[in-house]
Amino acid sequence: MDRAQDDPTGLPASAATLYRAALGPSGAGAYLPVIARFEERGRSAMVWNTRAALGQLAWLVYWRLWDAVLAQAGLALAAVAALGWLWMRAEGVPTGIQVGLTVSAVVLWCALPGLWGMAFLHRGLRDRVATAVEEADSFQEAVQRLERSALAWAFAGRVAAAAVLLVVVLLAGVVWQRWRPPVVDEVQVQRPVRPPLQPASAPAAVSPAEAAPTEVAPAAPAPEPPVQPPVPAVVAVSAEPAAAPAPPPAEPVLRPRPRGFGVNVGMFAREANAERARSLLVDAGLPVLEDPIESARGPLTRVRVGPFERREQAEQAAAKVRALGLEARVYAP
Question: In whole angstroms, what is the distance from residue 131 CA to residue 21 CA?
């Protein structure tokens, strides 16, 4: 190759031409200066690339970096498996720690292609350029091979990148639905108003008209002393006995948690929804437990499946519950 430093990037003119042909018109302006620095140093280095960090697998697929695609996909599967165990199996781990580890895994997954994406691209371009030069009979033919390859992949690469991005988003939604805890029906239920206690009835007041006065006849007049006026005597009327106070309404009794492993299906504010879930579970041959509970939103019905002696049985039951379209979380005794 010609070593004359006549290219603005500092690369030899022949190397710059080959890299431009491999990158295409849109990629040459953004990435050729970085590739030139790598060539000057003789090795790749860690350089931040926002497009690679945000594009992830889509960016790697667009530039046909298949080794990096496989590595990043394997890392993603391992991270999802570890986080799934953390959210579904790890008992007693605080929610704050679960959220922190999940955010850390997502940041790391984005940081790896963001920091090393340019190094992957440099290595891939060098391999393509070397292959084109070896297979071509002349320098111009090698350039044409690289240009045709970049132009043919431009549209197909965009379609493949968009498809990969869509698959990642859909899988993220599925994972979120699996990890999301059961949600009570979004219905505003008013707490039933307890009837006020009836006070004991007070003794009935007796009016003077209702009283049965008994008049005493005046004594026979005597010549002396003067006659005194008669005094009416009132007979007291007894009141009816006081009524007993009404007993307070009985509080709902919570059944104790059954021993063994089980599956929480959800808490329902509507009795019809709880009955529908119970019917689905019974039709599937699953043992169903129902508990009435009180909450700040009013009376709820908790539906569970179990109990089971082993976790494996609870996991199999949870899979059947999810197949019915219901939420399922395994709990330990």
Answer: 13
- 0.85 exceeded by the pTM? no
pLDDT in tens, 12-63: 888 889 999 999 888 888 899 999 999 988 889 999 999 999 998 999 999 9
Q: What pLDDT, on a 0 to 100 scale, did the predictor assign at position 224?
A: 56
For the chain, give every domain's residue range: 13-179, 261-331
Grade residue 196 by pLDDT with cuts at 50, 70 and 90.
Answer: low
Cβ neighbours around 270 below 10 Å, total: 14
Closest CA to 149 of 61, 261, 36, 63: 63
Please list, in sequence order, all residues whose beta carbon lies within 8 angstroms of the beta carbon of residue 187, skipping any fewer than 6 positions away.
269, 270
- 57 CB neighbour count, 10 Å cutoff: 19
**What's the DSSP call for residue 253?**
P
Under CATH, domain 261-331 is a member of which superfamily? Answer: Sporulation related repeat (3.30.70.1070)
- Name the residue with tokens 């006995």: 241
Q: Compute the distance between CA of residue 264 and CA of residue 329 in angstroms, rounded to an integer.
A: 5
Q: Give CA–CA dist 106/280, Å, rounded.
A: 37
Q: Which residue has the higher pLDDT, 5 or 166?
A: 166
Rounded to the nearest 10°, the torsion over CA 19, 22, 28, 31 is -80
For 256, other C-beta atoms within 10 Å of its C-beta total 6
* CA 139/CA 137 separation, integer angstroms: 7
